[in-house]
Amino acid sequence: MRWERSVPLLGLLLCVAGTTAQQDDTEAQEEFQVEISGTTVTLTCPLDEESIVWSLTEPKPASNERKYVIENHDSSPITVSCSAGNKKYEMYLNARVCANCEELDALAVTGIITADLLITFGVLILVYYFSKDRKGRAGATAGGRPRGQKTQRPPPVPNPDYEPIRKGQREVYAGLESRGF
Description:
Blueprint: H1 2-22, E1 33-37, E2 40-44, E3 53-56, E4 67-70, E5 78-84, E6 87-93, H2 106-132, H3 167-178
Antiparallel strand pairs: 1-2, 2-4, 3-5, 5-6
């Protein structure tokens, strides 16, 4: 029972010890800033010093400034590092860029989503409004036949032209046939 209570405490202790072991010094929290626009990638070194040496897996840059701009980046992964004196920061850059992409800000995305929701609710209200009147006409479905018990119909009324000929009628028919009727 006592062991079950100490397991969460042991897990928390291991997490805290693991994160402090990963952070050697406070400078490890600083990060590169990466800005992507079209095929241009702009990198900003976390160092504040004046003479910064950039090194890439691509051809060596000639810039000693804090910002480094990569024009026409081809989306291939590269390793980037900036250093000044004995401080060095490294980063693996795997930026996907495209020449024909359009940049959308948060306001445009919010507007598109809001317009989509309003159109969807409008269509929903129209469907509800026009289907509301059809609820009373439910009996007109299935070919117009009333729904209920199936009753047997009486036999159809015989046609007088097809009645059987009786004794007295034979003579009338015979006379009519001789005259051409």
